[in-house]
Structure formats: C-alpha cells, structure tokens
Amino acid sequence: MNFSLTPNLEQFIRDRANSGDYNNASEVVREAIRLLKRTEEHRILKLERLRSAVAVGDDALATGAFTEISSGEEVDAFFDKL
Question: What's the pTM?
Fold first, then answer.
C-alpha cells in the first residue's frame, strides 16, 4: 500500500520514531491507525446510543409520558424532586 503525506506529517512520524517510543516509522503509522479505528468505533457507539435515546424520547412523546417544563424555576423544582 502506498500513500502520500504532507511534509509536516512525515516529520512528525520521523520525530516520533526517533523519540525512542517506537522502533520505526511503520510502528508510528500502525499506532496512528489503531487510534483512528478506536476513535471511529467510539463515534459509532455514541451515534447508536444517541439514536436509541431519540427513539425513547419519541416514544415518550407519542404516549404522553413526559414532563413539560417551560421555565428555569420548573427545571429547579423538577431536579429537586429527583
């Protein structure tokens, strides 16, 4: 696989490899890809959770199972009851 990097990214990879934390540039790139993959997995999980929460909210609205709050005082009173 071939890819192009900007000079800044190339230098960053060289610097990280030369820092002693990695044996070579390939290790730096592999670690970066692992971190990107983990970030993407977390983003997908958050999106799934958000969609689920929206569905629960939609169901609550459809069935009337919600509390309408229209002022700061009502928010405070609501949380005081919790």
Answer: 0.70
